Amino acid sequence: MSRYGRIGAGLAALALLTGVVGAAPAVAAPTSSLASAVLTYPTPAGTAVAVNDVVQASLKTGTNATFYSSTTGTTGIKCAASSFTAKVITNPTAPGTATESLTAQTFSSCTTNVIGTTGVQSITVNNLPYNASVTSAGVVTISGGAAGPFQSTVVLNSLLGPMTCVYRSATNSIVGTAINGTNSIVFTNQPLTKFSGPATCFGTAYFSATYSPVRDTSRTGSPSVYVN
Q1: Structural domain tally of the chain?
Q2: Which residues form the domain of 202?
Q3: Residue 204: inside a domain, yes or no?
Q4: In the predicted structure, residue 133 carries a pLDDT above the cut 50
Q5: Is residue 3 part of a domain?
Q6: CB 48 within 8 Å of CB 88
Q7: Is residue 83 part of a domain?
Q8: pLDDT digits (tens, 9 = 90+) for 28-76
Q9: Is 200 a domain residue?
Q10: pLDDT beyond 80 at 92
Q11: Cα 50 from chain centroid?
Q12: C-alpha distance from residue 86 to each of 48, 100, 105, 175 (Å)
């Protein structure tokens, strides 16, 4: 996940989470050219994050993960809680690209204002684990892997009963930005296309979320992770 410190549908999901891809967000220049590895803790250019370490993050305090029907509107779903868990696969010398396996992404405490719906039963990120990569430039990419495409399943309550909406990414991935200054990963208006579901499920769900702080939970004290 690019610049730690800015899946999987999954519809993370996150779940869908989690399967959305739009234009990659603008990213800042790497913090340091002297870092021993792309991912370090507890500071930029600090100790290299070890292969097989577990990296985790939840939503930035006071923010929501959203799945809206447009990039500028507020119609859709918002979730007050979301988190992801990933395992580091490779962490080369910077500049370079670190790789991870996104093993879990969850969404909860969700509400909807979609006409015809009365609540959100669940949002599930399908086909985990996903492939993830983080470049020294801070670009985070999450893609569907061997288990299947980047996909999220949303179950909404309605007056007529449960309604299931399945979303996938047209590119089988979503793109975010890692920001060292806030130890965050930011996804902005990543598009998920409806794969199946009734007409009430809008055709494109735009996913946005800020996960912060990103931490290496395999180390004592769960130090913050940085991208170099």
Answers
A1: 1
A2: 13-227
A3: yes
A4: yes
A5: no
A6: no
A7: yes
A8: 434 444 448 999 999 999 999 999 999 999 999 999 999 999 999 999 9
A9: yes
A10: yes
A11: 21
A12: 16, 6, 9, 16
